[in-house]
Structure formats: structure tokens, C-alpha cells
Specification:
The chain is globular. Helix content is 80%, strand content 0%. It has one domain. The chain contains five helices and no strands. α2 packs across α3, α3 runs antiparallel to α4 and α4 runs antiparallel to α5.
């Protein structure tokens, strides 16, 4: 599968997930060239995961729990791309010192947490039934996904203003 096919929209496909798919594609396109040497394999895996998820959503009957997990996955994938892009940029910058090292460590931790959470959510998506909704493990993973997205959104706003 060529890289172009990873984010190419299929003709005639309209779904409630289209805007999330577009956000994933835009984040991938923005970050891939900068990060491909260090994280290209992970980026391609994420896009393949996203494609399989969208194909499953179109072809199979999904539960409400699966739809919620799919939405969280499609929200977190572009967040992972943006964190990774910020990490690569910060690592390649000419800044030095303890504050820079601390910032890199924090970004690296967020990046690893996002990657792990995305993979965990993906696994749960395929194992999920409606009976899982309301259980503490299910609620915990959704809450962690939401918390991570919120923390990353705040840090992204700070980075735009020149702070790590």
C-alpha cells in the first residue's frame, strides 16, 4: 500500500467520522515529513489502524461502546502526530539546559502515553460489546483518553505561544 493510499478518501464515502478522518489525515500530512526518519513506521501503523477502523465502522454493525471508542481513537491519533512533531522539533532545536531537557522528557512521556493509549483503545474496540460500557475498566480507559487529550490541548496552546 502506498503512502498516498493511507490518507486518500474513498469516493462517495460519507460518515459521521469524516471530519475526524480529515483531522487525522491533515495531522499525518503535516507531521510525516518532519518525523518520518524517527517515527515513520509508527505513523504508517497509525494510519493503517485508522483505515482498518473506518472500514470496520462502514461494513459492520457496531455497538454504542465501539462507536465511543472509535471516536476517541480518531481524536487521539492526530494528537499523537502533533505531540510527536513537537517532540522532534524540540529535540532538533538548538536549546540546551535543564529546562529544555525537562520539557523534552515531558513531551516524550505524553507521546508514549498517547501511543500506548491508542493501541489499548484499538484492542478494546475489537473486543468491545455494549456490556463493557459502564464497567470501571471501560470508564477508566475513556477517562484517560479524554484527560490526555485535554492535557495535550493545553500544552499545544502553550507551545504556540513559545512555551514548552
Amino acid at each position: 500500500m502506498g503512502l498516498f493510499n493511507l490518507f486518500k478518501r474513498k469516493k462517495g464515502s460519507k460518515s459521521g467520522y469524516e471530519h475526524l478522518n480529515d483531522a487525522c489525515n491533515a495531522a499525518f500530512e503535516s507531521a510525516f515529513h518532519k518525523c518520518r526518519l524517527d517515527f515513520g513506521r509508527e505513523f504508517v501503523e497509525m494510519m493503517e489502524m485508522k483505515s482498518k477502523l473506518l472500514d470496520f465502522l462502514k461494513s459492520a454493525k457496531t455497538t454504542a461502546a465501539q462507536e465511543l471508542i472509535a471516536k476517541k481513537l480518531l481524536e487521539l491519533i492526530p494528537v499523537y502526530f502533533r505531540i510527536t512533531e513537537a517532540y522532534v522539533s524540540a529535540r532538533k532545536s538548538n536549546q540546551q539546559g535543564e529546562a529544555h531537557t525537562q520539557a523534552l522528557s515531558e513531551i516524550d512521556e505524553r507521546m508514549r502515553r498517547a501511543y500506548s493509549l491508542i493501541n489499548d483503545l484499538n484492542a478494546r474496540f475489537y473486543l468491545c460489546t455494549d456490556e463493557l460500557s459502564g464497567t470501571s475498566a471501560y470508564d477508566e480507559i475513556i477517562n484517560e483518553a479524554e484527560a490526555l487529550r485535554n492535557v495535550i490541548s493545553k500544552s499545544s496552546r502553550r507551545q504556540k505561544h513559545g512555551h514548552f
